[in-house]
Amino acid sequence: MRSLQQLIRSNVLDFQPYTSARSEYKGGSNIRLDANENPWGTFNRYPDPEQLQLKQALARHKQVDLANIFIGNGSDEMIDLAFRIFCRPGQDKALIFTPTYGMYEVSARLNDVAVVRLPLTKDFQIDAEAYREALADKDLKLAFLCSPNNPTGNCLDALTLVLDTFDGIVIVDEAYIDFAGRDSLLEQLDRYPHLIVLQTLSKAWGLAGARIGAGYASAAIINLFHRVKPPYNVSTLNQEAALEALSDTATFEQRKAMILDQRRWLEAALRRLPMVKKVYPSDANFLLVEMTEAEQVYAHLAAQGLIVRNRHSQAPGCLRITVGSPSENAQLVGALQQMVLFY
User: Which pLDDT tens digit goes with each residue over 56-73?
Assistant: First the structure.
C-alpha cells in the first residue's frame, strides 16, 4: 500500500496556502481593520474560514474529532479538491463504478484525469472479478464509491473489499446514508487511513440550497484539504443555516421518518401500475423505476408539471423518482393512473 506522501501531488506537498486575515489573527478584538471589510452591514464581515462552530456541532453529532472534519461548499467541492490534491493531470487515473453520480467524471475531466469505468452487476453491485483485474493499472490514484448509490439507490456490498485492496485514496460518498439501514463508514476511519467519507446536509437535513458538505478522514488528509481550499469557501449565511438545522434533531428525525414511510408507500403504489416493470430496492430518498415507454411516461408527467429524472442514459428505460411529500407523491401516482386510463 502506497503511503500518503507517495499519493500526494508533489506541488501540493510544497504548496504554501493563502492566509486570510481571519486565519492569521485568531485572538479577540474590538476593532477589526485587517480585512478591508465595510464597517457597516449585517454580513459585512468575512466568514470563519475554519467553520469552527459548525465543525464542533458536527463533531458532537457524528462522534468524531474536530481534526477529522472538513467543511466544503457541497460535496462537489471536496470531489474536485481530491483530484487537485492527489492526481497529476494527464498521468493519474480515477476508478468509478457505473452507473453512479456524474460529478466524479465531470471533475475528472476538468482536472485532466482519465477515468476507468467498471460497470456494476445487474443487481447494481461491484463485480469483484472485474475490480481485481482493474487493480493491475498502477496509475489509479482515486476510487469513488457512492453508497447508497445514485441513481440506483442501493448500498454497495463490497466496500470492505475495495478498502482492503485499493492502493490509493478511497472516497465513499454517503450523501444518502441517513436513509439507509446501515452504519456509516465513519467508524472505520482509524482502520483505513486512506479513506475519505463524504456526507452532506443537502438530503436528509433539507439544506440543498445551503451547499454544506462534510468530509471525514485522517487528520493528515484533512490538513491537505484545508491547504488547497479557497479561504472563505463556506459563507456565514450557510454556516448559520447548518447550525440551525443541526440544533433541531427532533425535526430532522421526524422528517426522515416521514420520507422513509412515504418511500414504502410510493414503492407499493408504483408496483401496482401496469407501465412499471421494476422498482429497484432503495436505501435512499428516491426510487429507480424501470418503465415501459419511459420516455412517454416522462413527457406525460412533465406536461403536468411533475418533474422526475430521466436516467435512460445511465439505466435504460429507467426514471429516478424522488420521494416527495405525501401530497406530491399522491399527485404523481394519480397522474400515472390517469395515463393508464388515457391510453
Answer: 999 999 999 999 999 999
The three cell numbers of residue 318 are 429507467
CA distance 310 to 319: 5
Q: Is the pLDDT of residue 163 over 80?
A: yes
Query: Which of 192, 226, 247 is at the close of a domain?
Result: 247
Task: Quote the number of domains for the chain.
Answer: 2
Q: What angle do CA 188, 224, 26 make, to 5 degrees?
A: 110
- Euclidean distance between CA atoms 171 and 94, whole angstroms: 11
Sequence-distant (6+) residues with CB within 8 A of 45 are 32, 35, 37, 236
If you compute the radius of gyration of the chain from its CA atoms, what whole number of angstroms results? 22
65's grid cell: 474529532
- List the domain range (segments joined by +) for residue 193: 4-247
- Please give the pLDDT value at position 15: 86
Cell digits for 315?
Answer: 439505466
Residue 104 CA to residue 76 CA, distance in Å, equals 8
Q: How many residues does the chain have?
A: 343
120-161 per-position pLDDT tens digit: 999 999 999 999 999 999 999 999 999 999 999 999 999 999
Output the domain CATH number for residue 173: 3.40.640.10
